[in-house]
Amino acid sequence: MVSRRKFLAIIAAVAGFASFKRKVAAQEPVEGYDWNKHKYAFVVDTTRCIGCGRCVRACKIENEVPMKPFYFRTWVERWVWLKDEEGPKVDSPNGGFDGFPPTYDERMISKSYYVPKLCNHCDRPPCVQVCPVGATYKTKDGVVLVDEKYCIGCRYCIQACPYGARYLYPADGPRETRRNTADKCTWCYHRITRGYKPACVEVCPVGARKFGDLMDPEDEVRKIIEERRVQVLKPDMGTLPQVYYIELDSEVR
Amino acid sequence: MSEILWQVLQHVQGYIYPNEVEVNWSVLIALYPYITGLVAGAFIVASLERIFKVEAVKPTYRLALLTALAFLLCAPLPLVAHLGHPERALEIMMTPHLSSAMAGFGFVYAWYLMAVLLIELYFDYRKDIVMWSQEVGGIKGFIYKILTLGDYNISDEAVKADNKIVNIVTVIGLPSAAFLHGYVGFIFGSVKANHWWSSPLMPIIFLFSAMVSGIALVLLIYIVSSYIRGVELDRACTDTLANYLLYSYLLDLSLEFMELAHLFYTQEEGIDAIRVLITDKLFWTFIVIQVFLGTLVPIFLLIIARTGIFKFNVRKWIYIFVTTLTLIGVFAMRWNVVIGGQLISKTYLGYTTYIMPLFGPESLSLALAIWILPFIILAVLIKLLPPWEHPHEWEKTEAE
């Protein structure tokens, strides 16, 4: 199992990283895009993720997320269950940006998997509820966005998000207009409104991340959600997340 | 900030979400509920005399109102200073998002300042202001003339009408004061993502600790200002306030105990992380400062003082010690809620650390400056509107 992952990681590193140059400049959604005709959802297949970190790197480049290890729109966690130990070991060094070092003795591992995380674009988003000025809002196609020109930087939304998906864009961040405002994954709104996939989905070498439109009956994501057993993170929060996980371990939160 | 985050990263324990390294609500946000709590508490002291007719504490009536005003004027400062974009602060009021508890702040604040405190102070002081405007010259006299708002009628009927208005405003003001601070507790209590905060008891706990801190502050200011003025303390007033401090403390302690008991009894997810938070991460600020020095010691000393085994001269020093401990203890409570709640990860698997910068934005020095400012404003207010030089008109009216 682990050797397969390693093999795939090497393939991914060699074949993939240099090819990621199809950067779409982040800007307003294209004219003519009708958000009433889409309802997006995201699927993460935890059985496929190899922890290569390409998605994390792609996201940072695509969305001008500061390269420091405390700001992430998406990250990958490694969950490891060791034999004779209660509870999992979890880590995410630099959000998985550089992949994962072989920390554990393979003979001691009972089970392990990688869990990519991102904003859940909840149907009932607590971040939207608490924003005092309405700078963070939910679009009709199901995406939660932040208006960087309107956000006052109070950080209430960061506190309200149960998933740690938000951070305050730092004062020295590369995108000037976004400085000192709340930032988070937008499912690459500038890409998806043009018909592209989010950057992390595009670069995933194993198809662990899938993005689709629930209004399209032929969409792969819609079929997965309809036909397979999927789970969301922290369902008890009542936030109705729109990122669905295949084969999610109940301990993952 | 980035340099501090690099340091913090070295101190992260266990597993936290990568975005949780930074403690987003800093010392300034701990200061904010502290200051609003003092406002609410001071107003409740004033209400004791007006609504509940506690004769003994009359000497502190106007002092409590001025204290509430001085602190209320500074209440938004830590919030605004903390914002990433303070120049957009007014958007909270101009284009509020009504589902947000924080958006309510502007309106609750404005209501309390404009519709309660300023009206009550104006009508309470109106006769004095008119008299001072005629007696005093220069800039001060000019200020009094402005403060009269052009109404120089101080006939008996007018003063009686003033008193009626003050009584009505006080009745409206008491729930308003409770709402002002209760809603601050609601901001924290309603964050379901954070188990250390998420509790319907939070607004009530905030309110009772506000009463504790407000009574302590007014009592301390009363003792210190009497010393500065070279005036004997009113013993009945001092002892009565101390008694009310004790009663509020007992209620506050019971509520906080119930909150903790509930946490540990229900054993919900994250309880192990909370246990470590209390016994390790917040050991000094929670167990030692908030619970022991800030609650148990003052309650013990107040009970001892109440037995009357000490003379007033000794009791006075006990009160000074107790009120100082109280003010520190209640700030520790705000700190433990605000900062403590962010040390614990929403994964319940790890902890971050808070490193407070000494200078710059969201620093210790800025917090101290904002903390000192209300006392300077209070000194100016006392100079302008002496709370003790004229007998209260409403007392006379009621005596008749």
Helix count, DSSP H or I runs of 4 or more residues of chain A: 7
Q: List segments of chain A where confidence is low: pLDDT < 50 over at least 5 consecutive residues.
A: 13-27
Our estimate of the beta-strand percent of chain B is: under 5%
Q: Give the rounded overall mean pLDDT of chain A.
A: 91
Biggest interface pair, residues each? A-B, 48 and 44 residues
**How many helices of chain B in DSSP terms?**
15
Strand-pairing-aware structural class of chain B: mainly alpha
* Gross morphology of chain A: globular
Number of strands of chain A: 11
Query: What is the number of strand segments of chain B?
Result: 2
Output mean pLDDT of chain B: 93
Which consecutive residue ranges of chain B, at least 5 long each, have pLDDT under 50? none
Largest sheet, strands/sense/barrel of chain A: 4 strands, mixed
Biggest pleated sheet of chain B: 2 strands, antiparallel
Structural class of chain A: alpha+beta
CATH topology of chain A: Alpha-Beta Plaits
Radius of gyration of chain A, in angstroms, nearest whole number = 18 Å
Strand order across the biggest sheet of chain B? 1-2
Distance between the termini of chain A: 24 Å
Largest beta sheet: strand ordering of chain A:
9-1-11-10
In N-to-C order, the SSE pattern of chain A is: HEHEEEHEEHEEHHEHEE
Task: Give the gist of this structure.
Chain A has 253 residues and is of the alpha+beta class. Chain A has helices at residues 2-16, 54-63, 126-130, 156-160, 189-192, 199-203, 220-227; strands spanning 40-45, 74-82, 89-91, 109-118, 136-138, 144-146, 167-168, 182-183, 209-213, 230-231, 243-246. With 400 residues, chain B is mostly helical.
